[in-house]
Amino acid sequence: MTTTVLAAGDRFVLPGLLSDAVRARVGADVEVRELELPWPHVPFGPVAEVQEASGTEEELIAALRGARVCVTQLAPLTERVLAACPDLELFCVSRGGPVNANLDAATRHGVAVCFAPGRNAAATAEHTLGLILAAARHIPDLHADLRAGRWRGDFYDYDNCGLGIEGAAVGLVGYGAIGRRVAAALSALGARVLVYDPYVAEDALPESAARVSLDELLAQARIVSLHARLTPETRGLIGEREIAAMRPGAVLVNCARGGLVDYDAVRRALESGHLHAAAFDVYPEEPVPPGSGLLRAPNVVLTPHVAGASRQVAHTAADLVSAEVDRFLHGRPLAHCANPAVLDADGVYRNGSVGGR
To answer: CA 168, CA 225: separation in Å to the nearest integer?
Structure first.
């Protein structure tokens, strides 16, 4: 029997990438139809009760008619969509977490929701390293000055020149898939890596890294880079007190989540000179409001939440969700299911038995 799959892509994880990956994995027993969502040309946001979604419930309902499977990055799986699409059994989100899916409603309707952990870990680690170097060495400012015809030889002055990595203490707040990659790169450059992560065991760290408390990390590190998830426990983790506790002339980098940091406190620390520089890819409000003081702060490098954007990431994301489709269609355990109540004891989908389907 042929299974209908909806590839609801966007301008990053293209519908064609999703379609090609599903066909390559599954073969001829699928009919794949495509839907293109407007992100990133139109910012994602809340759709009904879900967050960080793209497109509308109406267009998704129409596109899902008769489909058992949806592979997507940002399509909104809401109560309304689930109620209108009784054939849907598998919804695969090609992201590190399925924030655009109502998991409780999906479980009630017997729909398995899968996701793609680690899809952009390498890209985010690479971008983090780029921001560390750009901020520590003032690369964007020097580039802009030179293009404007100013040769900044004064940056050889001791008081002006940048910070090096070799021999410096670099603190990583969080040691997951991204933090581990950043640690390896920094160790290769000769940094002394300090790690604060209460959920990582001491013996999980390599010999080149030392586990410390957050206070020890802030007091010792010349560069602090954030790699923690945003939870009620970590929201506002780096505030006025923590920034004041950092070494004078330190660098702060955040490619994790904007809610981890008090950006007003960062701006004040940059203006006072307490911080040498800062670099951010994520913000409490996105896009950043035009009136934000951060846009006018000195010695700050800013990118628009693109750390996880590389062509390899788009291909990896498509491969990860297509692998889940293959497992689903062949009755094998799903690897990354966010609502395991719809699975049996072996991790295999239970044919919609949960919720009365």
So the answer is: 13
192 by DSSP, 3-state: which? strand
pLDDT at 355 over 90: no
Q: Look at residue 356 and tell me whether its pLDDT is greater than 50.
A: no
Q: How far apart are CA 16 and CA 326, in angstroms?
A: 17
Q: Which residue has the tokens 């015809």?
A: 149
**Residues belonging to the active site:** 257, 286, 305
C-alpha to C-alpha distances, 123 to 126, 257, 312, 313, nearest whole angstrom = 5, 16, 8, 7
Instruction: Give the closest residue to 255 by CA, choosing from 186, 169, 172, 197.
Output: 172
Round to whole Å and give the CA distance between 4 and 1.
Answer: 10
Report the predicted TM-score, pTM, of the whole model to 2 decimal places: 0.88
What is the rounded (10 degree) CA torsion for 150, 156, 157, 160?
A: 70
Give the Cα separation of 321 and 336 in Å (integer).
Answer: 9
Separation CA 256–CA 46 (nearest Å):
20
d(CA 8, CA 152): 49
Q: Are strands 45-47 and 112-114 parallel, antiparallel or unpaired?
A: unpaired
Q: Which candidate, 267, 302, 288, 316, places its Cα nearest to that of 117?
A: 316
Number of Cβ within 10 Å of residue 72's Cβ equals 30
Would you say 29 and 3 are in contact if contact means Cβ atoms under 8 Å apart? yes
Domains recognised in the chain with CATH numbers: 3-119+310-356 (3.40.50.720), 121-302 (3.40.50.720)
- pLDDT, one tens digit per residue, over 250-285 is 999 999 999 999 999 999 999 999 999 999 999 999
Alpha helix ranges (H) inside the chain? 15-26, 57-63, 79-84, 103-108, 121-136, 139-147, 177-188, 214-220, 240-245, 263-272, 311-329
User: 108-123: per-residue pLDDT in tens?
Assistant: 999 999 999 999 999 9
Pairing of strands 192-196, 209-211: parallel
